[in-house]
Automatic annotation (TrEMBL):
This is Lysine-2,3-aminomutase-like protein. The keyword Transport does not apply. Belongs to the radical SAM superfamily. KamA family. It comes from Devosia albogilva. Keywords: 4Fe-4S, Iron, Iron-sulfur, Isomerase, Metal-binding, Pyridoxal phosphate, S-adenosyl-L-methionine. Residues 84-297 form the Radical SAM core domain. SUPFAM superfamilies: Radical SAM enzymes. The lineage of its organism: Bacteria, Pseudomonadati, Pseudomonadota, Alphaproteobacteria, Hyphomicrobiales. InterPro entries: Aldolase_TIM, Lys_aminomutase-rel, Lys_aminomutase/Glu_NH3_mut, rSAM, rSAM_sf. Its cofactor is [4Fe-4S] cluster; pyridoxal 5'-phosphate. The keyword Phosphoprotein does not apply.
Length: 342
């Protein structure tokens, strides 16, 4: 059973009974799925799985620069459930529930039992109507919350409606389910994610190699075998994956499981998450250290969602500097070379 309170977590030996933690749980949703409970090493006070999901009193500290809506979703929401920030793609947020609640979540003020809930059928009609009425929308990105908490029947209904919209060519899911609740990804779920005539992409959110249990690997394989194109999504997190070894191992694990590394997010300014954040320069160094050290297939793009709703920007250090009459290019070991071409 999913653990949903400090009492549940304490009974499972994963935390102490502490009134301050009760306060955290009142403010931000708590859920740790059975698959994750299995993965936590209770003997390790720095366990990277526990750190992502078990509440900590540090969450009571809110810094002035932190925001309830750190990436500015609300500024670009023309109708309930739709975020339309870039011309050719929209987010469709049908549900604001997740199978687990990450302690660093960028939408932590919107998700959970006290969050924005699930779109009503009238709201879903209006959201799909918006997509149908905007021929520039080439891609629909189902996110939330976690869209894979919906039943295969409901997902299939959404996919059938998107399939009817000629200008939508690609449907992308962002989800943590294959890793945190792998048993949900059964044949019916896999079938529901596909829509006739459209390409289905699915971004798997994972932040540490240890999240890839044998069951998670099998769930991912079922998706890949069915022709769903898999990409990754991770958050750079202090105390979880903020060293080169751990990041390299995570990215290689994605590739071994047929998941192409896509984004490594700089942590957002979500309330009560300062203990997870590191500096941009530290992040740039880590990402630069991956280059050359591990396969080109395993390189993620390091990005920040600019607070205020201005979209994502790449944070990688540039390898190129312009000198007089030529460029200087830095190689993966830090050596500089003159490039005299154009
Ligand atoms: C992140 C995001 C996307 C997807 O961006 P990509 O760079 O295409 O992955 C689209 N819309 C919104 C509002 C987003 O926040
Ligand atoms: S799965 Fe995503 S939306 Fe849900 S709690 Fe984690 S980061 Fe937030």
């Amino acid at each position: 059973m999913t653990l949903r309170s400090i009492e549940d977590l304490a009974a499972a030996g994963l935390t102490e009974r502490d009134p301050a933690l009760e306060q955290v749980a009142e403010r931000y949703a708590v859920a740790v799925s059975p698959a994750l409970v299995e993965l936590i090493d209770r003997g390790d006070p720095d366990d990277p799985i526990a750190r992502q999901f078990v509440p900590s009193v540090e969450e009571l500290v809110t810094q002035p620069q932190e925001r309830a809506d750190p990436i500015g979703d609300l500024a670009h929401s023309p109708v309930e459930g739709i975020v339309h920030r870039y011309p050719d793609r929209v987010l469709l947020k049908a549900v604001h529930v997740c199978p687990v609640y990450c302690r660093f979540c960028f939408r932590r003020e919107m998700v959970g039992p006290a969050g924005l809930g699930t779109l009503t059928s009238a709201e879903l009609d209006a959201a799909i109507g918006y997509i149908a009425a905007h021929p520039e929308v080439w891609e629909v990105i189902l996110t939330g919350g976690d869209p894979l908490v919906l039943s295969p029947r409901r997902l299939e209904a959404i996919m059938r409606r998107l399939a009817e919209i000629e200008h939508v060519r690609v449907v992308r899911f962002h989800t943590r389910v294959p890793v945190v609740e792998p048993e949900r990804v059964d044949a019916a779920m896999v079938a529901a994610l596909k829509a006739s005539g459209k390409a289905t992409y699915l971004a798997v959110h994972a932040n540490h190699k240890r999240e890839f249990s044998p069951a998670a690997r099998e769930a991912v394989a079922r998706l890949a075998d069915a022709g769903v194109v898999l990409v990754s999504q991770s958050v750079l997190l202090r105390g979880v994956n903020d060293d080169v070894e751990t990041l390299a191992a995570l990215m290689k694990t994605f590739v071994e499981n047929r998941i192409k590394p896509y984004y490594l997010h700089h942590p957002d300014l979500a309330p009560g998450t300062s203990h997870f954040r590191l500096g941009i320069e530290e992040g740039q160094k880590l990402v630069a250290a991956l280059r050359g050290r591990i396969s080109g297939l395993a390189q993620p793009t390091y990005v920040l969602d600019i607070p205020g709703g201005h979209g994502k920007s790449v944070l990688g250090e540039s390898a190129v500097t312009r000198g007089d009459g030529c460029f200087t290019i830095r190689d993966w070991q830090g050596q500089e070379h003159r490039y005299t071409g154009e």
